[in-house]
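Q: For a teaching handout, I want to show students what a protein-ligand complex looks like in token form. Below are the inputs, and the small molecule is flavin-adenine dinucleotide. Please produce the holo structure.
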Amino acid sequence: MNKNHIVFFENLLGEENVYFDKAHQIAYSYDATKKRYEPDGVLFPRNEDDVSKILKYCNDNHIIVVPRGAGSGFTGGALAVNGGVIISFEKHMNKILEIDLENMVAVVEPGVINMDLQKAVEEKGLFYPPDPASQDYSTIGGNVSENAGGMRAAKYGITKDYVMALRAVLPNGDIIKAGKKTIKDVAGYNVAGILIASEGSLAVITEITLKLIAKPKLKKTAMGVFNSVNEAMNAVYKTMAAGVTPVAMEFLDNLCIRAVEDKFNKGLPKEAGAILIADVDGNLEATLEKDLEVINRVFKENGATDFIIAKNEQESKDMWFARRNCSQAITCYGSLKINEDITVPRSELPKLLQRIKEISTVFNVTTPCFGHTGDGNVHTNVMVNKENQEEVKRGYEAIEAIFRATIELGGTLSGEHGIGISKAPYMKLAFSDEEMNLFRSIKKAFDPNNILNPFKMGLDENK
Ligand SMILES: Cc1cc2nc3c(=O)[nH]c(=O)nc-3n(C[C@H](O)[C@H](O)[C@H](O)COP(=O)(O)OP(=O)(O)OC[C@H]3O[C@@H](n4cnc5c(N)ncnc54)[C@H](O)[C@@H]3O)c2cc1C
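A: Here is the structure, written as tokens, with flavin-adenine dinucleotide included.
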């Protein structure tokens, strides 16, 4: 990086907020993909005005800018794949600005950690439902930019369902407001809607206004045991169709059950084909009982051999332990986990899981599956040994076949992790040339010099 540029940033932000040293280049070179790309430097803006001046300068000088939250992304969105500067919000722009109890709205800076917001609003009797498993460290800016989902998505939806308004800075430094604190707003294009899930490629989000809801008072957990994945998948969508919307309806297949049981010895049914874990919530005991009755009936009608209701908080935690520790337990099947978060309409889940099984046989790979089946989102993990190149190649071929099957079933490449660099090569499977060109036109309208997080989302034809 040209010394003049560094001096500009130091004069703007103060030396204590500008780092072009090796330690910072390494510290900000990775995310959850474990791939490494060192940025030239890291900037810590103190406020929106700083962001605006950084972007204007970078735009004028064609310097790449990569916004970064906690770097917990699974697809490389926060990686500086072609150098440039990282803008990080963790140091200064990390405050909850307002919790408006009358309108049930929170206004936050992008660096606020999801769990900090959840705790702050719960102290006031309110509820911010989106709960990605990374909630202890991922930021609201990152959540909005990836449209993060979580365990509670089946009932409460995902990040986009809570974003009411955004403030953001365009690559040329212009500051824009998109949306309002109002429940209704149909004036003009839905710019906030375009920025959600844009993976830091269109604008830098500087303030987020989020809808809050009343916190339900009661919650209960139950687990259904099935002989086959097919039975469990039928039970998922038939439960919803029967009129019950559980907070969560999570699934583990037999490979996952065995991996968790072998590692942690929790008394799980090792011979089961699949288990479903469901939470229901509400304000009346009687409503929860009724919901569990319906779930029990639908599970049994679809072949459940057992239905266990947690008697207390500890038993509920024990049931959830299996799901929460599944991801690490399945590493017993291979040293490289190629994990995807494909999503289909819920009624297609039985077909999707059948197709995954067939594809695993064809490519001779082990594919434990678990995840948020309540919203049709399956974490599909092709496990291979990274030392065996031929096996790794087969693993990626299996992944491509799984993507194709997902799209044939009306599904999407990603339910929550985004595209970034990891899934960029597969965008062509999901979108026509016309659709990809429309994406490129949108990118160009926001970022004509292609300085903001370029070479992501399959937008650059040659990358
Ligand atoms: C163990 C684990 C579990 C996970 N579980 C879930 C899960 O259940 N559900 C889920 O959805 N995801 C999950 N994730 C993925 C990840 O946590 C989410 O994608 C999260 O939203 C990323 O937030 P972050 O702050 O780490 O963002 P980063 O990874 O730093 O960035 C993500 C993207 O957002 C952009 N960005 C960040 N801040 C801004 C901003 N202010 N303006 C513009 N662009 C910005 C970045 O450029 C990048 O493209 C998990 C990750 C891990 C490691």
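A: Two things your students might notice: The chain has a mean pLDDT of 96. The longest strand covers residues 218-226.
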